[in-house]
Amino acid sequence: MKTSKLILLGIAMMLAGCSADEAQREQQGILSFSTSIEDFDGEPLTRTTLEGHAFEAGDKMKLKIICPFSSHTEFGETTYGNSFDAFWLLKWNAGQWATLTSADGFDINGDYSPSVSPDIYERYEAQQTPYVYTAQTWSEEQIFIAGAGTRVEQYSNVFHANQTKEANYKASDLMWAQTIQQTGSYNVHLSFRHVMSALLISVDANASLGISDDAVLTLEDMPDIDQAEVIVGDYYAAKSKVNSNDYGYKSKHACTKDDNGKVIGVAVVDDSQKRAYTKPIGSVAQTGTYTACHVGQRAYRLIVPPGTLSKQATFWLRDGEKRYSMSLSQTSFEAGKLYKITMKI
Q1: What's the CA gap between 136 and 141, in Å, rounded?
Q2: What is the pLDDT of residues 222-268, one digit of tens each?
């Protein structure tokens, strides 16, 4: 009996110690994220943010936390209604991920005015159940009224067919990461990788042609996904407990295990069905024209969706009244791969 009492007393002291420690950790908010970015396969060794080697100030990520094997809504799985689809929204600031402020200009909590994003660093996440942290970059906040007055808000990664501006090129270069922890953790590493494909085009022209730095390069007969939200499959999305409505994360991102972490299509909002769904890029009309980003003397970069084209696309170089074209022999594009192409004139 004495031994049992001592054991129970010891357990009680341990529990008291844990409770005090948990409260202290929650108050301090010491959850931390470390991040890395995998280069495009085939990327040259130069180091610039345009080429996607590192995050820079103002880049944004949205984080979805799912505990797929727990029937309860665990800490981190919900933002208590302070963001749609229970996303934690962060920006890259001074070398780390920080919460958004009202100065960033986003209506995160749906009150029709700029608001602060929920603070992930205030959450205590050490529940003894597997945690899945899924993150991806995003560029735009989209708000619309669906169906019978249903307000939908989403933090979207939008594809830009016109990538002339560096900001549009970077916004189209979607990056994604997923980490699985056996228990909620204070230290989470997110290894981001590019889920789109990239082209690096060099124009090889005789000097006598006088190609200027104002020449514009386009790629025609590509999937027409301009201004569409690109969707990356998340095998665990089906277990998401907090979803705003049928226009949200679960409806668009749920997929098979084989498609986890892959671009599975673009989002379609269908009011007739009162929901959103994902349309495979292969079924999108191949009538789009993409405009490349000029990155140096006769050098251009372009982000394109992964997949296989139904026919060859065509490059056009326009320089004043001059016109040059070349068929693109490459018809299949792999996620995370850079294709080096020479346009010989």
Answers
A1: 14
A2: 999 999 999 999 999 999 998 877 889 999 999 999 999 999 999 99
- Long-range CB contact pairs, 91-99, < 8 A, 24+: 91/58, 91/59, 91/60, 91/61, 92/55, 92/56, 92/57, 92/58, 92/59, 92/60, 92/61, 93/57, 93/58, 94/57, 96/33, 97/33, 97/35, 97/61
| Per-residue pLDDT reduced to its tens digit, 169-225 | 999 999 999 999 988 777 899 999 999 999 999 999 988 888 998 999 999 999 999
Per DSSP, 235 falls in state T
Strands (E), 38-130: 60-66, 88-93, 96-99
Q: What's 296-317 look like in SS3?
A: ECCEEEEEECCEECCCCCEEEE
pTM: 0.86
Identify which of 43, 38, 41, 37 has the alpha carbon closest to the alpha carbon of residue 200.
43
In order, the DSSP letters of 65-82 are EE-TT-SS--TTS--TTS
